[in-house]
Amino acid sequence: MKSVSENFPLTVLHLRDDDIPECVADAIADIGIVGENVYMEKQRNVNIIKKLGFAKCRMSIGVPKNFQYNSLNDLNMKSIATSYPNILTALLEERNINAEIHEISGSVEIAPSIGLADAVFDIVSTGSTLISNGLKEVDTLIKSESVLICNNNLTDKKKELIDELLFRIDAVKRAKNRK
Q1: pLDDT tens digits, residue range 78-119?
Q2: Which ranges in 33-125 belong to alpha helices (H)?
Q3: Whose CA is closest to 21, among 2, 1, 47?
């Protein structure tokens, strides 16, 4: 879907969040708003130009309630289910942890209960989904929020428009904070 702004030279494309980094990298769109976690996972050639301060969440390890967890090292030689295999792989490699990663596109929290994985790595907002699936959140590895990303090959004119858009976004935020 596509809509056009009435008071700013802007066309808005309504896309799935997973598609936004690629569309921006491929110059289908000049900028995009996406979760920092999606930006990190997709590993496209785009830049974050502003953290937007909303849609905050964390990316955490969840384990069954009876799992004895002291640190990420406890997952060495275990299996972990996630929708974010690139982020998890990088985090495990940084800490020299060898774990089997099972990529799941949804309902990650059921993986331990069906015997697919020993733990999960997923986005968490309140933690209620983990709890309702018999899991406990044991380690927050990344904090995420919505970010504004841009294509790396913008013209000077487009950069000026983005600066104007950022000015407007900041003005609205300042006005809301004064209430």
Answers
A1: 999 999 999 999 999 999 999 999 999 889 999 999 999 999
A2: 36-42, 85-94
A3: 47
Residues 19 and 88: their CA atoms lie apart, in Å, by 20
Nearest to 101, CA basis, from 84, 125, 124, 126: 84
Contacts 24+ apart (CB under 8 A), 122-129: 122/59, 122/60, 122/62, 122/82, 122/83, 122/84, 123/35, 123/37, 123/57, 123/58, 123/59, 123/84, 124/57, 124/58, 124/59, 124/60, 124/62, 125/57
pTM summary value = 0.87
How buried is residue 161: exposed, middle or buried, by Cβ count under 10 Å (0-12/13-18/19+)? middle
Is residue 52 exposed (0-12), middle (13-18) or buried (19+ Cβ within 10 Å)?
A: middle
Structure tokens at 95: 């800490």
Strand partners, 46: 151
Q: Output the CA angle 36-21-97, nearest 5 degrees.
A: 55
Instruction: To the nearest 10°, report the CA torsion of 78, 84, 86, 91.
Output: -60
The backbone region for 101, taken as left when phi is positive above 0, alpha when psi lies in -120 to 50, beta otherwise, is beta
- What single letter denotes the amino acid at residue 51? K
Q: What is the mean pLDDT of residues 130-141?
A: 96
